Amino acid sequence: MIKCLLLFSGGLDSILAAKILEKQKIKIIPICFQSYFFNCNLAKRSAKSLGLKLKVVDFSKEHLQIVKSPKYGRGKGMNPCLDCRLLMLKTAKQFAKLRRNKFNLLATGEVLGERPFSQNINALKLIEKEANLKGLILRPLSAKVLPETIYEKKGIVKREQLFNISGKSRKSQLSLVKKFKIKEFPQPASGCILTDSEYSKKLRELFRKVPDCNGNDCQILRKGRVFWQGKVLFIVARNEKECYELKKLGKKKDLILEPKNFPGPTVLIRSFSRKMEKNILEKARNLLLKYSKKIPKNPEINVI
Ligand code: SF4
Q: Is 14 in the pocket of ligand 1 (CB under 6 A)?
């Protein structure tokens, strides 16, 4: 049986790619990647609903490197989509090799022109060339508007049963949903925090101040309001969940402030400075009080 390693985000395009190839009696092995900036939760749900066994690969460390210094630039936020797709394909190729090439083909749910930055014809060609996968990436949704792959030439896949979808409109995909009788599918939404403009601002600032920051530093920026004093980072939780998450992500050297006799947010202090910065406790205390609703006359604050 022909086996396909399919890059699988769990979004509609990747679900359709799986369905199109299954129609040709190809066995699908979906692969999903997780990093500090996105996870595989959607892919897990979609794979389960399709009855597919998902392979999850954590490439957080390698991905952080390309987020810090992408070779091919970024989208509107801090998203280095071209480098990211390239890393996914290289990692998938490596994954296939480690399993002694038990796969006959490699496919993605990409649609030509759907994302102007990373899915235009030049970007697709560049990714194939850089990953050393020329003619070896099948994109079932757009195959007929792309050069023939080796799989089609060899007859492993029937080109006439592939599609010619291009552009941002979802019309063709929705008609395929009907054709394949797909009952449930996720709405288009980026599960990648790097496309979020607010988060991107915070991350840019972190990279500027602390070029050698690690994954935990990047993740903690998502857990509240962010303030800086020199090289000291303050995070103020916005709700109960963030209070809990801040403490969970906190490192040994971090300081945590919590209100004792009144309701208010948890504040985390993380210093990236070698010297002791002045007044950091006072600043954290002021932030905690600023974002508390009912402050008693004598507010008591725990420092952990
Ligand atoms: S949006 Fe995020 S996950 Fe998707 S390609 Fe771009 S950087 Fe990678």
A: no
Domain span at residue 11? 3-179
- Among protein residues, the one with the nearest Cα to ligand 1's atom 2 is 192
34-48, 100-114, 177-191, 275-289, range with greatest mean pLDDT: 34-48
Is the distance from the beta carbon of residue 84 to the nearest atom of ligand 1 less than 6 Å? yes
Provide the mean pLDDT of the chain.
95
Q: Is 81 in the pocket of ligand 1 (CB under 6 A)?
A: yes
Q: Are residues 295 and 156 in the same domain?
A: no
**Displacement of CA 98 from its chain's centroid (Å):** 24
Give the mean model confidence (pLDDT) for residues 282-303: 95
Residues 238 and 147 in one domain: no
CB 272 within 8 A of CB 216: no
Residue type, 75: G
**CATH no. for residue 83?**
3.40.50.620
Q: Which tokens hold the place of 137?
A: 């990436």
Ligand 1 atom closest to the CA of 195, numbered from 1: 1
> What's the 175 CA to ligand 1 centre distance in angstroms?
26
Beta bridge partners of 257: 267, 303
Q: What integer pLDDT is reported at residue 45 of this predicted model? A: 95
